[in-house]
Automatic annotation (TrEMBL):
NCBIfam families: PBP4. InterPro entries: Beta-lactam/transpept-like, Peptidase_S13. One of its GO terms (biological process) is proteolysis. Pfam families: Peptidase_S13. Keywords: Carboxypeptidase, Hydrolase, Protease, Signal. It comes from the Bacteria. The gene is dacB. It comes from Brasilonema sennae CENA114. This is D-alanyl-D-alanine carboxypeptidase/D-alanyl-D-alanine-endopeptidase. Residues 1-20 form the signal peptide.
């Protein structure tokens, strides 16, 4: 699970050398290979030369079919240094998280926390009420169990998991099949545990035999019928694994192969019924603390009017936002979107996500972001129905630079060649260490938006979005990086 990011680390200055490192989270959409822009020599670029230099990159024949949207402006003004289709809609992928986290910080404040509570209902009945804390893990279950033990709870007749605080589908209906099969497409609900994923390890055996399946959670193993069609191959043979599950959470199919001398492979998969997963794990934790549990239920009944016996709070929002942006964590982003509905509870028949989107739009509009510049259906960018203009991203970045949460927001972004999804990019280039930006990648989509502190020019904000490209993501990403390196070399002349 991810390391915590201290508030002190988050509140770094806005200078040119900023470094944040975290352990990569499992629920992320982007796999970023080591890509170094082809243009690595340091040179000076005058503003008058910028347009011609950028055009030379994006007008290459291999990008003839791609759509480019670009906007570059000084941080402190709306003067345009470069613009191309900046007001048009593009599929943003994970740069959507810039809007979600900006609204969350502005509306909820950097110290906002999400509380998980256990209430006593009398006669040995306990209600555990979740409110969508994405950081909640087995460690927090242990904390709750120990608190209950200290309160004199020795037996639980009924453990009732209340999963009703967050309303709506646990996965967005527009998310694609391959996404909800992957750990980065984990479901979102009130009672989140271990980022709503479970793990198995696959080990090679003798040649010709199926791979051995080892479960990290024995209780989870009992939920599945495993169809193991994998095989162990001879040494030094290629390895590939494909694990899928049906939507009802009954059948787990394992295909592929591992070579005899290969390392065990860890596979993370989203749980199907997260509230039941939470309930099973909490029961096991209570039993481990010598508090027997007779029955468990997932129910809409709750004990919110009863006495709170135990509680755990999430880290402050400053840390949740960092986990969201640095490693592009979809589950964290979706949880923060729903947390916005704390300010405006959903209307009848309205989901928490839709209520959160309304609060987001109102918040961003108040900050000066044109509400016609984006159209969102989720908070992570995983949906292809999301639409955002480069201009809307630049307006958000500029507005957040003036916000009381400016330092926290800025520090939540990956740093070129240093952290998160930019750790392997811009190495040994003029952009190294001076670019803080959010990445976005999905099939046919590559985007990047953020800040540049150039040594010889005023600070800038930029948004680069590429859609409808048939080129491999690494090729488009390298072209984007070339443009950012040009911006890093801008100077007054």
């Amino acid at each position: 699970m991810p390391k915590k990011i201290s508030l002190g680390l988050l509140l770094l200055f806005l200078g040119t050398q900023v470094g944040i490192t975290t352990k990569p989270l499992s629920a992320q959409t982007q796999v970023v290979p080591t890509v170094v822009p082809t243009q690595t020599t340091t040179k000076s670029i005058c503003p008058a030369q910028l347009g011609t230099s950028i055009d030379a990159v994006i007008n290459r024949p291999l990008f003839n079919r791609a759509r480019w949207g670009i906007l570059v402006q000084p941080l402190s003004s709306t003067q345009t240094l470069y613009s191309r289709d900046a007001q048009k809609y593009f599929t943003p992928a994970s740069t959507t998280k810039l809007l979600t986290t900006a609204a969350a910080l502005q509306q909820l404040g950097t110290n906002f926390r999400i509380r998980t509570s256990v209430y006593g209902g009398g006669n040995g009945v306990l209600y555990v009420v979740g409110r969508g804390d994405p950081s909640f893990t087995d460690a927090q279950l242990t904390v709750l169990a120990k608190q209950l033990k200290q309160r004199g709870i020795t037996t639980v007749n009924q453990l009732i998991a209340d999963d009703t605080y967050i309303r709506g589908d646990i996965v967005h209906p527009s998310w694609q099949w391959e996404d909800i099969q992957s750990d980065y497409g984990a479901p979102i609900n009130s009672l989140i545990l271990n980022q709503n994923v479970f793990n198995i390890r696959l080990l090679p055996q003798t040649v010709g035999q199926p791979l051995k399946v080892i479960w990290n959670d024995i209780s989870e193993a009992a939920q599945w019928q495993v169809i193991n069609q994998s095989v162990t191959t001879a040494e030094n043979q290629p390895s590939f694994i494909n694990v899928t599950r049906d939507l009802k959470g009954k059948i787990l199919r394992i295909k592929g192969q591992l070579a005899l001398n290969s390392q065990p492979q860890l596979v993370s998969l989203p749980v199907v019924s997260p509230a039941e997963y939470f309930s099973r794990r909490f029961r096991s934790t209570l039993i481990a603390e010598k508090i027997p549990v007779v029955q468990t239920f997932v129910s809409s009944s709750n004990g919110k009017n009863q006495e709170e016996l135990a509680n755990v709070e999430s880290p402050p929002l400053s840390e949740l936002v960092a986990q969201t942006n640095i490693n592009s964590n979809n589950l964290f982003a979706e949880s923060l979107l729903r947390a916005l509905s704390f300010k405006k509870p959903p209307a009848e028949n309205q989901t928490s996500a839709d209520a959160g989107l309304e609060v987001m739009k109102a918040t961003l509009t108040q900050m000066g972001v044109d509400s016609t510049g984006y159209s969102l259906v989720d908070g992570s960018g995983l949906s292809r129905k999301d639409l955002v203009s480069p201009e809307a991203l630049v307006q958000t970045l500029q507005a957040m630079a003036k916000s009381p949460a400016a330092l926290v927001y800025r520090a939540s972004l990956p740093v070129a060649a240093r952290s998160g999804t930019l750790k392997s990019r811009f190495q040994n280039t003029p952009a190294e260490g001076i670019v803080q930006a959010k990445t976005g990648t999905m099939g046919g989509v590559v985007s990047l938006a953020g800040y540049i502190n150039t040594p010889k020019y005023s600070p800038m904000v930029f948004s680069i979005m590429v859609n409808q490209s048939e080129q491999p993501a690494r090729v488009v990403r390298q072209a984007i990086d070339e443009i950012v390196v040009l911006l890093a070399q801008l100077q007054n002349c």
